[in-house]
Specification:
Helix content is about 65%, strand content about 0%. The chain has about 80 residues and is an all-alpha fold.
Length: about 80
């Protein structure tokens, strides 16, 4: 599935329309879960709202296996 995941990652940069912040956060979280596993480190403070949103989205994927995260990422990209 790794080659299919890599192809989906490449397709995201070729999107003609902005999918919106919610979808981009989900893509980010699934990508990080698939490539790095569960979130680590401290949650960014209130002065960094973008970092905080990304951290929270990734933290919401905790416990999801890399294979499942890749499959969900591919499914989400295919739906765009």
């Amino acid at each position: 599935m790794s080659a299919e995941f890599d192809a989906a990652v490449a397709r995201v940069s070729e999107l003609s329309q902005d999918p919106g912040n919610d979808v981009k956060l989900k893509l980010y979280a699934l990508y990080k879960q698939a490539t790095s596993g569960d979130v680590s480190g401290k949650r960014p403070g209130f002065t960094n709202p973008v970092g905080r949103a990304k951290y929270d989205a990734w933290a919401g994927m905790s416990g999801l296996s890399a294979e499942d995260a890749q499959a969900q990422y591919i499914g989400l990209v295919d739906s765009l």
